[in-house]
Specification:
- This protein has about 130 residues and is mainly α.
- The protein has one domain.
- It contains six helices and three strands, in the order E-H-E-H-H-E-H-H-H.
- It has helices spanning about 10-20, 30-35, 40, 55-65, 75-85, 95-125; strands at about 1-5, 25-30, 45-50.
- This is DUF2007 domain-containing protein.
- Keywords: Membrane, Transmembrane, Transmembrane helix.
- It comes from Microbulbifer agarilyticus.
């Protein structure tokens, strides 16, 4: 897999990815979940990746020239699988959701612990 482009907009990345898929280039988007949770992750970019290295040059040409003809297109079955994956949030959707849920739980537990410690400390000082 090779990074073709990165964007500061999910919509732009999805548009390019769909454009590549429509022309038979296996592509996907990464960083969608991290971007959507950028307050926690710090991520400000979304990447468009060409899955098969042998299609990378075709992808670069398509990006520059909409009339370029892809020399080695992926099968219809693979094309549908990549489109389903893209519709479900890209390659990092499931992993990203698990990571951000774990971060949320850790942050919540730490918050409860700190607030509890502050309240306990105030009670001790008052008595």
């Amino acid at each position: 897999m090779k990074l073709l482009a990165d964007f500061d907009s999910i919509e732009e990345a999805m548009n390019l990815c769909n454009y590549l898929l429509d022309h038979g280039v296996a592509a996907t988007v990464s960083g969608v979940n991290a971007f959507q949770h950028r307050v926690l992750s710090g991520s400000t970019r979304v990447g468009v990746w060409v899955v098969y290295e042998e299609q990378f040059n075709d992808a670069c040409q398509l990006k520059k020239d909409s009339n370029h003809v892809v020399s080695k297109k992926i099968s219809e079955q693979l094309l549908n699988e990549f489109k389903e994956q893209l519709d479900s949030g890209g390659i990092d959707s499931e992993l990203g959701n698990k990571i951000f849920f774990a971060l949320f739980v850790i942050f919540s537990v730490l918050t409860i612990f700190v607030v509890g410690a502050i309240l306990l400390f105030r009670i001790i000082l008052i008595e």
